[in-house]
Amino acid sequence: TTAQTNGETLSATATDTAGNTSAATTTSAPDTTAPAAPTDVAVSADGDTVTGKAEAGSTVVIKDADGNTLGSATVGSDGTFSVTLT
Q: Is the overall model pTM greater than 0.85, yes or no?
């Protein structure tokens, strides 16, 4: 059996000795798997925006060489992001 650790939806039913099965109930496994690194990352020609692709719903943070945060964005359901630098 594979461990369920990436937000999978699981269902459970109960069946009695007569073979009657309950309605299903659902739950979600914890999401303990880190997303893959962003891809297709590009800086706009004017240097004000960074775009790319990452796991939908994750947060992308753009930092400078000294580790200072320049901006962040939540990745859209289509897996793309656009961060306006401040």
A: no
